[in-house]
Amino acid sequence: MSVENPCMSCGACCAFFRVSFYWGETDDCPGGTVPAGLTTAISPHRVAMIGTHHSNPLCIALRGQVGHEVNCSIHPQRSSTCRDFACSWETGEPNPDCDRARARFGLDPLQLQLQA
Fold this sequence. Notes:
Blueprint: E1 20-22, E2 39-41, E3 46-49, E4 62-64, E5 70-72, H1 80-84, H2 96-104
Antiparallel strand pairs: 1-3, 2-3, 4-5
């Protein structure tokens, strides 16, 4: 991925998918980092970021406007679900889920950027 991270002008995944993960990743658990106050229980062992468990998801930690300028207010403490989600071409492969989220907001799929 180039120096200019396309995620900083997108945020579509944060407003398209449910962000759920094992509750032990919250700061209620020793070693957990995700602020528990920003999560809601969805099962005995899983939580979701508030706002992402609705039919029109929008993560409570997302700041800015999707498709413009965005950031994650808890980026260093984000869950494994978020850390593991790669935008298209970040790992040299397209990510159909990234493309699908972007399409929901009228954004074109990301293109492979060849280095000069």
